[in-house]
Specification:
mainly alpha; globular; Amino acid/polyamine transporter I; 444 residues
């Protein structure tokens, strides 16, 4: 006999085209009942894998390349710390979806004052545009370098490819999970190749990963950019939606097992993403820091790698950049649709959503703006907007009337609030620096 789900734990019906197939759902339920066999965990891989692509998008490439080129291994600790905080918050996001059957935007709409919800939606839409600016531009730059075509042409190719992949998502999220998982594998293998080629000072890299230090205000700006590129607002919204839709009619005992598998997947998927980010900084430090610290954009990095480390390294870099740009742009659009549907209960056509999120990238190119500067600033926008999903998420996951028995305890609550405080402190330092005010011994 199945345990009934408490009233505090809702059952939201998944939108058409986003659920598991009947066959896959039956296998998942068998695994939740303990009849899945030794490889049952594979059925639960997906939500965190999709979310993890947000942690290896082109915004990460720009901030990590600049961090390694300018400051060597000294900012590796920021990458490590940001990834650990991201891992915690993605786990909490997935927990909210499993416990409530709703995504973070929907719970916010149901539980928070309407004026606050409207502000959250507006800020989240701006963050979605900033997200896609980095992702879409990154993929387009990669294709432009590969085919030697004007950037506007490559943007058109990127738009067509990402839209085609998004249409694939209408067949259910399992094909999309496998597709995004494939892109993650490509990116990871490319950076594994880079590490074998680059002449890395591993003891120095190890010290940089565990020794907190910020050399100057420029390092601070990059640190905040790394945080913005690593802990992504749209990933917090999306992850809760993916877990909520996976088994919306699961019983309480099944949700307990779902949470167990979800936590394992978060640790695994985000560990891979974190190692890729670490590899980006290490590669940039090894290749550029001593002789080419001025390397700051994707094109220069690509053209510099061939003479420094050979054609294989340059090819691996370009392949990973294209895979990152296309896959993360797809995921960003999925998240934008979920945010709008959750906050204001409206769903717009996929082509219109794609057009809206692509618009800032076309504006940047049409106005002749510095694409690298635009990419870095987009990551800062994401860092500043991060409290919008982060603080409500912390509020909800600690409340028993929202989460039932899945509400987090005081120890985990304290760790999560400490992580949020660290992120917001970095944001405050960035704002002080932007206004030319001194802080903590730094002065621009």
């Amino acid at each position: 006999m199945k345990t009934e789900v408490p009233q505090a734990i809702g059952n939201a019906r998944a939108p058409a085209g986003t659920g598991l197939s009947t066959r896959t759902a039956s296998h998942v339920r068998a695994a939740l009942d303990g009849r899945g066999g030794p490889f049952a965990f594979l059925l639960f891989l997906g939500p965190a894998v999709i979310a993890s692509i947000a942690y290896v998008d082109p915004g990460n490439y720009v901030t990590n390349i600049q961090a390694g080129a300018r400051y060597g291994f000294s900012l590796l600790w920021v990458v490590v710390a940001a990834n650990l905080i991201a891992m915690l918050f993605q786990a909490l996001s997935a927990r909210l979806g499993i416990a409530t059957g709703k995504n973070l935007a929907e719970v916010s709409r149901d539980r928070l004052p309407r004026p606050l919800v409207q502000v959250m939606w507006i800020v989240s839409e701006i963050a979605a545009m900033a997200t896609d600016l980095a992702e879409f531009l990154g993929g387009a730059i990669g294709l432009s370098l590969l085919f030697g075509v004007p950037l506007l042409w490559s943007m058109g190719i990127t738009a067509a490819v990402t839209y085609a992949l998004l249409v694939l998502g209408d067949r259910g999220f399992r094909p999309m999970e496998l597709l995004i998982g494939g892109f993650v594998v490509i990116i990871s293998l490319c950076y594994l190749i880079e590490l074998f080629i680059a002449p890395v000072d591993w003891p120095a890299a190890a010290r940089g990963a565990v020794t907190p230090a910020l050399a100057d205000s420029g390092a601070l700006v990059l640190a905040v950019g790394i945080v913005g590129a690593t802990i992504m607002p749209h990933a917090l919204f999306l992850h809760s939606g993916l877990t909520a839709e996976r088994m919306p009619d699961a019983t309480l005992s099944e949700r307990r097992r779902l949470l167990h598998y979800s936590n394992l997947e978060v640790v695994g998927a985000l560990s891979v993403a974190g190692l890729v980010n670490v590899a980006m900084v290490i590669m940039a430090a090894a290749a550029f820091h001593r002789g080419h610290p001025e390397v700051a954009d994707l094109g220069t990095a690509y053209h510099s790698l061939a003479p420094l480390l050979g054609g294989l390294a340059a090819g691996a870099f370009l392949t990973s950049l294209i895979a990152s740009g296309i896959s993360s742009s797809v995921v960003g659009t999925m998240a934008g649709q979920l945010v709008m549907q959750g906050f204001i209960h409206r769903r717009i056509p996929l082509w219109l959503r794609r057009a809206v999120t692509m618009a800032p990238a076309f504006v940047v190119i049409a106005l002749g703006m510095d694409t690298t500067r635009a990419l870095v600033l987009s990551q800062v926008v994401l860092a500043v907007s991060l409290p919008v999903p982060m603080l409500p998420l912390l509020w909800f996951v600690a409340r028993r009337d929202v989460m039932g028995e899945f509400a987090i305890g005081w120890r985990l609550r304290g760790i999560a609030w400490a992580g949020a405080a660290a992120v917001m402190a970095l944001n405050l330092m960035l704002l002080l620096d932007a206004f030319g005010l001194p802080f903590a011994g730094f002065r621009t």
